[in-house]
């Protein structure tokens, strides 16, 4: 078996692994990155990017249907699902090709195959063709991501019982779609197909949709789903299904309090979360700490075995692509001998429902749990001229600040372009901004971003375009 030596081996070429390898290459480190499937991982291939392409298409489709209110006559709009999927596939191909090019340009060697850690400083790599070699290295980065969770009674068949991977690749719009799990993935994809004409039913085991999200924000999304015909069951569990003679599925649901129902649908999307990929890489044998499947690491990205690092979904919550990327970059800096740490104030989160939800920092409830007296500012999109002009007035911007000092603690948005607006909030938190900093900053008019300024002013009692407390 051939042996060679490098500075670092990165296992997994997703949004944590490939930025780590690229940065290592930029820092003149000799690096090998191993990926068993396609570069880009879940995010580029069947997660973030494909789902957002479909979300964008469904939003455009809905806008054309309501264009008559603007005086625009749009007739015979229909969905060509095959063309839609081909378009989405083209985006994915372009991005994964770009990643491959960036790895090559930065002298990060990509090996398509599998990796097993055989020692604190050795990795055995098996290529797709079956060739094996041992790599000796100063550092090993575990960036193996996560996998969709299956649940009892709903084994994936790739056709009618599906996960997110198949959910972004459907070549036929389900007439009746049942989503098990009212979290991020379930509501994002459920919204897509509802806009395209599916009858949507959501079964969520907890008391609220989008568990962990500020209920004020979630309520806006839930209202719109229900307004467009969705049936939502909370505190409910899907128990199993039977196949009807016509090919449809009869799903048995426990509604709680001794009540049961049977929901007939054509497709079931199981979206109950993701499980970290930590098994089968040799970590347990080396004594690397595993916690509920995760491979925890410290502020430098190191596991309890100093030469082994972990980044991204496998390292722990939150399972977000941008968190993985930043961790990968930090670890690369440390391996190359530079000073770096995971020392950010906040990791913003975005949910691409309709309307979008975006958060950064502490929620009102979290601040109060820490014993902080808070000052809340809130500004509705319905009071913004730009929101009216684009016919998207649902939702609001909410800021949470320390009542005494006025320092910003959190920003929470539900509404149009929340995903883009939250970056101002994240920057403000990193800079330890105060309500006055945001409220006194001139925001251009007419824009959606004015809502951030007005929300800060409302927190101070100075808002111009709504009543103050």
Automatic annotation (TrEMBL):
Q: Where is the Pyridine nucleotide-disulphide oxidoreductase dimerisation domain?
A: 347-456
Q: Which EC numbers characterise this protein's activity in its record?
A: 1.8.1.4
The record describes how the cofactor is bound as: Binds 1 FAD per subunit.
Q: Which cofactor does it need?
A: FAD
The source's superkingdom equals Bacteria
| Enzyme type, top EC level | oxidoreductase
UniProt GO MF annotations? dihydrolipoyl dehydrogenase (NADH) activity
What keywords appear on the UniProt entry?
Answer: Disulfide bond, FAD, Flavoprotein, NAD, Oxidoreductase, Redox-active center
Q: Does the keyword Disulfide bond apply?
A: yes
Q: Does the keyword NAD apply?
A: yes
Q: What Pfam families does the database record attribute to this sequence?
A: Pyr_redox_2, Pyr_redox_dim
Residue limits of the FAD/NAD(P)-binding domain?
A: 7-328
Q: Which reaction does it catalyse?
A: N(6)-[(R)-dihydrolipoyl]-L-lysyl-[protein] + NAD(+) = N(6)-[(R)-lipoyl]-L-lysyl-[protein] + NADH + H(+)
SUPFAM superfamilies from the entry?
A: FAD/NAD(P)-binding domain, FAD/NAD-linked reductases, dimerisation (C-terminal) domain
Q: State the similarity comment.
A: Belongs to the class-I pyridine nucleotide-disulfide oxidoreductase family.
Query: Any remaining note in the record?
Result: The active site is a redox-active disulfide bond.
According to UniProt, the name of this protein is Dihydrolipoyl dehydrogenase
- The organism is Pendulispora albinea
